[in-house]
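A protein record in our archive is deliberately plain, so that people and models can read it alike. The tokens are whole numbers drawn from a learned vocabulary of local backbone shapes. For reference, a complete record is included directly beneath this paragraph.
>
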Amino acid sequence: MKTKVCGRCKHRRPVPRFTRKANGGLGYCKPCTKSYQASYRMRNREKSRAYLKQYYVEHRDQWPIYSKRHYQRNRESILRCKAKRYHRNLERYRQYYRKYYRKNRERILRWSRNNYRARRKKENPGGGIEE
């Protein structure tokens, strides 16, 4: 396999680990490109946000399709990441849920009672003794 030395980090990496330039040539290695793009977005936060907002407006109809396809292709890894995040922040989630419950207690209890009645009606539509 062909290799190349990155102009930034000076590591020798396989050619597929490099980005392609618009003219078809090889750019920097992907880790260097990723870190550069992240630092650029941090330095130019407002410009990046404006660009993303404009891009979203122009491609609004495509986002639900993309999101659905991305979730279908990466479902397992997305769920793993959510589970890891939940377990890393378990106490924060518990505090949030407790606070939410205290704030919305009446609404939650009302929903629970109504939902219980609706489920009972579905399970036993006659309401009486089944024969």
Q: What stands out?
A: The longest strand covers residues 26-29. The helical segments are 30-43, 45-58, 63-73, 75-88, 90-103, 105-123. The two ends are 75 Å apart (CA to CA).
